[in-house]
Amino acid sequence: MDQMSLYFQATLTRVWAPKGQTPVVKVSPQRDNVHFYGVLDLTRGRELALTALEQTAAVTADFLRLIVMLFPARHLLLLLDRAPWHFGPPIQQVLAENPHLELLYYPPACPDLNPQEHVWQQARQAISHNHSYRSFQSLIDDFETFLNETPFDIIFLEKYAPSILCHV
């Protein structure tokens, strides 16, 4: 599970272009942004992503409750980074209410271990990098649709926990 911020300003990345034809990406001066909360099911490669106006422990707790509600009969282990909004009384309350939910925190400064970071990267590459949108809502809608409708190849379990795959 992780969060990211999407800005209306175009994000630029390297791109190939014919010699002498410089690519042009229109950049909006607006600094509008929205946050996405996302969780990746490592057994199926399916993503659940929602927008949020802020990243706080209370909003994170609400997202955790949604995950528990969507998977009521499953023991859930969520892998998280050490963002400040992943800690605090609202998170502890959700854990107390849901004994089948466990949180495991990554070591500091290890974003490459987080499969959700790779999902964000793929979505940015497909939707927001080097792309111009006339409206911020169109960008948000396309980004959210990509996240929730794209199956993601997951090698995390194969790489880090091969014995788990035998029991899924």
Give the helices and strands, then pairings.
Blueprint (H helix, E strand, L loop, with lengths): L1 E6 L25 E9 L4 E7 L4 H14 L5 E5 L8 H9 L3 E5 L9 H14 L7 H14 L6 H5 L1 H4 L3
Parallel strand pairs: 4-5
Antiparallel strand pairs: 1-2, 2-3
Helix pairs in contact: 1-2, 3-4
Please describe what this structure looks like.
With 168 residues, this protein is α+β, with helices and mostly antiparallel strands. It has one domain: Ribonuclease H-like superfamily/Ribonuclease H (Nucleotidyltransferase, domain 5), CATH 3.30.420.10. The protein contains six helices and five strands. The strands form two sheets. Strands 1-2-3 form a three-stranded antiparallel beta sheet, with helices on both faces. It has a two-stranded parallel sheet with strand order 4-5. A hairpin with a 4-residue loop joins strand 2 and strand 3. Helix 1 runs parallel beside helix 2 and helix 3 crosses helix 4. The longest helix has 14 residues. The protein is elongated. The chain starts with a strand and ends with a helix.
